[in-house]
């Protein structure tokens, strides 16, 4: 089988889970003897050009004929059996899908951008699915949902509206990959054909090297963007209420709230802000923890940190929102009310006070990983999706 992978890499200034998944799946295919070719673009190329680059990116977002020309050349030379796209924003555009008619086309839904211009279904610190439910981009334009700017929102809204009208998602893609059942149902509500959406979660490659639970320090970890949508401010507020008896909390990552939260927590000795780390360093922080907390205020896809926690046998506490509860519940995880530091504190402190329950959750996390999130299982799932997509065009 020959697979043409398509991806627009996000800027290198900040880590991207989508970039990481693209590389992991590419390597997984190669490891299993699949013939792989890549068609990629890099957002760094336009960021380096300043305002001119922004104009180019905005113009390319709805429909990029120049990318299509280069794409068709690769199609002609490589002749793939499957075209599998991860991200086409902003430089590739959905124009590649009708251009590859006759080839099985697959698109992974790493976020909600097909129907939500912000990609993050959140407004005024609360989940918002107005554009998805109404199947129109009017709410996003009204509220300037992308970067707080109607001008910046316009090209993404135009892309959504254009491809809804021309039926790109209905006619030019054979299979969509959702990362969770929750995301699948929400995207179907937004207009994707139900029979074309299949759930395949993220995976952890290889065999994880686990640290015995009792050998880990008394430590809790958060890893991710230190921004409002991730709810890290709620986690820090809970730790301030917990006081001196709280276990050590390591916060891994950078973002707009980092310096504010660091300043507000300067007097606390049981919170450490570690800043941005490499993927390997962040994994070590998670593997050495007794609990990972994911206090998101928005609908996640399938956070990379959660699959890492399960791989390393680390229990997970999550906000009771979106797909997170159904992901962690079989793994012994717990939930708390989103954007509610008091409930976060109550639930986490209760779990922390029951070492045997926490240890058992660690065992359940390992089992859940082995049953559902290994590379071998993920490869079988992906091959099934490719086969279904190919069957649609024969």
Report on the architecture of this protein.
- With 394 residues, the chain is α/β, with parallel strands linked by helices.
- It has two domains: 2-204 and 375-393, Rossmann fold (3-Layer(aba) Sandwich), CATH 3.40.50; 213-372, Rossmann fold (3-Layer(aba) Sandwich), CATH 3.40.50.
- Helices cover 45% and strands 16% of the residues.
- The protein has helices spanning 17-31, 44-47, 50-60, 65-78, 96-99, 130-134, 138-143, 150-166, 168-171, 181-189, 232-242, 258-264, 279-287, 304-311, 324-328, 341-352, 355-372, 375-393; strands at residues 2-9, 35-42, 82-87, 104-108, 122-123, 126-127, 175-178, 197-199, 219-223, 248-252, 271-275, 291-294, 316-319, 334-336.
- The strands form three sheets. It has a six-stranded parallel sheet, with helices on both faces. Strands 11-10-9-12-13-14 form a six-stranded parallel sheet, with helices on both faces. A two-stranded antiparallel ribbon has the order 5-6.
- α11 (232-242) packs across α16 (341-352) and α14 (304-311) packs across α17.
- It starts with a strand and ends with a helix.
